[in-house]
Amino acid sequence: MFKTSPNLNALLALLLLVPAPSIGITTELYIFPGIIGHLIAFLSKIWLLVVPIIWLLFIDKENLKVQYPKGRDLLAGIGLGLLMLSIMLIIYWLLGPQWIDIRYVRDRATQIGLNSFTIYLLGGAYWIFINSLLEEFVWRWFVYRKCEILVTPRLAVIICAVFFTIHHTVGLLAYFDWRTTILCSLGVFFAGAIWSWCYLKYRSIWTGYISHVFADIAIFIIGWQLIFA
Q1: What is the DSSP letter of 69?
Q2: Which runs of consecutive H residues, i.e. helices, occur in 136-177?
Q3: What's the confidence (pLDDT) of residue 153?
Q4: 163 contact partners, CB below 8 Å, separation of at least 6
Q5: Could you give the CA distance from residue 167 to residue 132 in angstroms, rounded to a whole number?
Q6: Which residues neighbour 105 within 8 Å (Cβ) at sequence distance 6 or greater?
Q7: Which ranges of 100-138 would DSSP assign to H, the alpha helix?
Q8: Where are the domains positioned within the chain?
Q9: How many Å apart are CA 91 and CA 15, to the nearest integer?
Q10: Per-residue pLDDT tens for 140-199?
Q11: Cα–Cα distance between 219 and 70 in angstroms, integer?
């Protein structure tokens, strides 16, 4: 069935994968904050990694290959990353003090254990270097390619960015008001669209990954200011 119906194949893959991070974040932040929520969120991340690999090997019947970054990937990634980092920090310094309730953010961070210096650093290292790679593998290499089967490449860039934004918006709502959530969600959407476009142009996740690292560094600098400063 999957060989004769690539559209159904792609649609089913998206249905199995796209809701998973929103389920994990919703459980962790709203329904069961604590050990149970952390566990479900962790399992959702495992699901995000396992589904594309299983799909590649057993449904698409392809081999899992490692594509090493080229010089153009590094240059484009660093350039985009520095631009994203600068824009994010500038917007935070301009609007953050007026828009963000720091006490509320700190209370929410305490509920999930992010108020610990050690946990924050370890979590930041994981999020910046590992989670960003996982997200590029999942959302650009897998989800974007499945969207591209169903629609035109340009529309796939937009749809993939929307899918990428949904679970981030769910998480943002736990910490910020509607203004900050909308602004940050738009930022996530445009970043996701740029990274999907990079995959469309270069057929490599490395440009997106490198710039994603810089964007996450900006996020954790801002988070540090909110929680510990």
Answers
A1: P
A2: 145-150, 153-172
A3: 97
A4: 14, 18, 139, 143, 147
A5: 14
A6: 175, 176, 226, 227
A7: 102-111, 117-125, 132-135
A8: 71-227
A9: 35
A10: 999 999 999 999 999 999 999 999 999 999 999 998 999 999 999 999 999 999 999 999
A11: 27
Token look-up 């980092």 returns: 85
Instruction: Please name the amino acid found at residue 97.
Output: P
State how far the Cα of 164 lies from the Cα of 63, in Å rounded to an integer: 25
If you search the block for the tokens 């305490």, which residue do you land on?
110
- The span from the CA of 33 to the CA of 185, in Å, is 23
Residues composing the chain: 229
Residue where the block lists tokens 């796209």: 18
Question: Is the model's pTM score more than 0.90?
Answer: yes
The C-alpha atoms of residue 92 and residue 43 are separated, in whole angstroms, by 32
Q: Which residue in the block uniquely carries the two structure tokens 């809701």?
A: 19
Report how far residue 134's alpha carbon sits from residue 145's, in angstroms, rounded to the nearest whole number. 15
CA distances from 156 to 143, 149, 221 (A): 9, 9, 32
Which two tokens mark 51? 């589904």
Dihedral (CA of 226, 217, 164, 40) sign: negative
